[in-house]
């Protein structure tokens, strides 16, 4: 399970439990338009935000889950990248609510994160190839869907 498939983009399924969740960074600012969760950045000399995906100027943004977590099937482990949709499935709440909780009560935030650990899910994942620095290539496995196993 610890090896990510070799092809540049490949789908795979795993049954595993979350063992560790990185909570820094946990969310990121994203586009508030429906069906767009593109990254946004603050516009210079303005109170507006600009979406990198849909190229729109926005008066406000939404928080979007964007974190890594480790899963294990009891034999091996792998690190997975989590998207907003999957974060809501795992944590049972929106990224905006988790961000508010993080700011208001770090202890409760930690309990919410810990509540995900050691619960089994069927994860549908896709690998992608990234080049974060010149001359380096790395494989990243992102979760597309997660279904809890009762």
Strand count: 10
Percentage of residues in strands: 35-45%
**Distinct helical segment count:** 3
**Helix vs. strand class:** alpha+beta
Molecular structure report:
Helices cover 18% and strands 41% of the residues. The protein is of the alpha+beta class and 150 residues long. A five-stranded antiparallel β-sheet has the order 8-7-1-9-10, with helices on one face. It starts with 10 loop residues before the first strand and ends with a strand. The model has no long low-confidence stretch (mean pLDDT 86).
Task: Provide key terms for this protein.
alpha+beta; globular; single chain; 3-stranded antiparallel sheet; 150 residues; 41% strand
In short:
The protein is α+β, with helices and mostly antiparallel strands. It has 3 helices and 10 strands, in the order ββββββββαααββ. The strands form 3 sheets. Strands 8-7-1-9-10 form a 5-stranded antiparallel sheet, with helices on one face. Strands 3-4-5 form a 3-stranded antiparallel sheet, with no helix packed on it.
């Amino acid at each position: 399970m610890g090896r990510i498939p070799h092809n540049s983009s490949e789908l795979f399924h795993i049954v595993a439990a979350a063992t560790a969740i990185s909570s820094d960074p946990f969310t990121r600012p994203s586009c508030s338009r429906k069906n767009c969760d593109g990254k946004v950045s603050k516009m210079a000399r303005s109170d507006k935000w600009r979406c990198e995906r849909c190229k729109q100027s926005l008066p406000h943004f939404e928080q979007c889950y964007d974190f890594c977590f480790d899963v294990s099937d009891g034999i091996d482990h792998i690190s997975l990248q989590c998207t907003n949709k999957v974060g809501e499935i795992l944590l049972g709440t929106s990224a905006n609510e988790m961000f508010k909780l993080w700011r208001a009560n770090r202890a409760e935030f930690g309990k919410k994160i810990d509540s995900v650990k050691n619960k089994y899910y069927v994860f549908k994942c896709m690998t992608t190839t990234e080049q974060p620095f010149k001359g380096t290539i790395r494989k990243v496995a992102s979760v597309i869907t997660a279904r809890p196993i009762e």
